[in-house]
Amino acid sequence: MDSYGKKIGAHPESLMMGHGYVPEWSEGAIKPPLFLTSTFVFKNAEEGEAYFRQAYGMDPIDKEHPMGLIYSRLNNPVLEILEDRLRVWEDADSALSFASGMAAISTTVLSLCRPGDQVVYTIPVYGGTDFFFNHIAPAYQIEAIPVEAGSDVVEKIRQMDLPRLRMLYVETPANPTNLMTDIVAIAELKKERSRKPTQDEIDTKAILPGEVILAVDNTFMGPVWQQPIRQGADISIYSATKFIGGHSDLIAGVVMGRENIMNQVMLFRTILGTMTDPFTAWLMLRSLETLKIRMEAQSRSAIKLARFLEDHPAVGRVLYPGLLEEGTRQHAIWRSQCSGPGSLIAFEMKDASDKARAFRVLNRLTIAHLAVSLGGTETLVEHPSAMTHSDVSLEHQARAGITPGMIRVSLGIENIEDILEDFRQALDPES
Ligand SMILES: Cc1ncc(COP(=O)(O)O)c(C=O)c1O
After folding, report:
1. Residues 6+ apart with CB under 8 A from 31
2. pLDDT digit string, tens, across residues 301-314
3. Strand blocks (E) in 218-340
4. Residue 200 CB contacts under 8 Å (≥ 6 apart), including other chains
5. Domains of the chain
6. What's residue 50's pLDDT?
7. Which residues line ligand 1 (CB under 6 A)?
8. 3-class SS of residue 317
9. pLDDT class for 235, splitting at 50, 70, 90?
10. In the predicted model, what is the mean pLDDT of residues 242-255?
């Protein structure tokens, strides 16, 4: 029995050192071994039959009836331990790991939406997600409708004609502008727009036909600074390539949420084969042990860099939750749903249309690497308009607040004095 930390109600960061694994299972090894195996041997034919009934949704999978091990496309001990630990952060019923953040997003949307359904999604949104909603979802007759992220999202959605609304998809803070969307307010809207389930539907634990599902991409702040499930979201999605992996050496995704919804996502992951592999899962387990201290250190540096940029004469707007002005709605949303400012900053050149100047700064930085992605131990810079969001039309970019003079920074864990010095020399017009 796994009792690690239970007696004392240990914090998530402590549970990352032992939850979901008992050393006795593996010769006393303090770390879970890596199970490089494609298939698992059944004790007898009856066991094999019972496990397959679970795998294909004929029998329940829940805490009392955990899924039996069959084949590593369905599950693997390392994935199970990882998923148990991930779930802890948001107190979700269950978590699933995926081959990438995009595998997590696409599997989730395809498993929960049907032809004719409508999805409203906030913009800006990660470029790959935008591509999925614009080019892939329509091929399955799923109508995806963008709405600008920010304080007044709920008011805007209320004015839309949405007779077949199935999903509200929110990325908050938004990539790259850090615009905040109020999860609690959207969760209220979701309740208003959902049809009351019949008792039969509740009893069968089916995905409720009239239910609007609220999905939140929690990559930028989660799981340490923001936990959407605690605020009323049904599912929380991550590119685990970012903070959870944390070392820019793997690609992975995570979805966590309510049991009945997760079972449906699990069924699609099994058949689409979008799970992560055991070695990547093992690397993530190792990364989870340092997740909180990494994210804390990254945030401390981000606060310093954001203040430095704010005071710099060559810099215009600095978009960072830690700089939000008290008394504004954005600040109120941030205070109520996040416990920290995070470590992603978007800033503009004094002239927000000055792409050449932004490129010059990017080309002059020596410690900060010019690369997309975020959340790793090294500081990364990129140009959203020409890179991560280049598939988004310029008109959409402008609507979403992405400008040619904008640079996105993801802080690493280097000595912050070196980072400040690097930006100082890169922004200096004389040098
Ligand atoms: C907010 C956000 N969501 C999802 C993704 C997609 O994740 P992945 O690259 O792991 O597929 C990214 C990638 O940058 C992202 O920034």
Report:
1. 285, 286
2. 999 999 999 999 99
3. 235-239, 253-257, 315-319
4. none
5. 12-37+72-288 (3.40.640.10), 291-427 (3.90.1150.10)
6. 94
7. 100-102, 126, 128-129, 171, 175, 217, 219, 239, 241, 251, 253, 373
8. strand
9. very high
10. 98
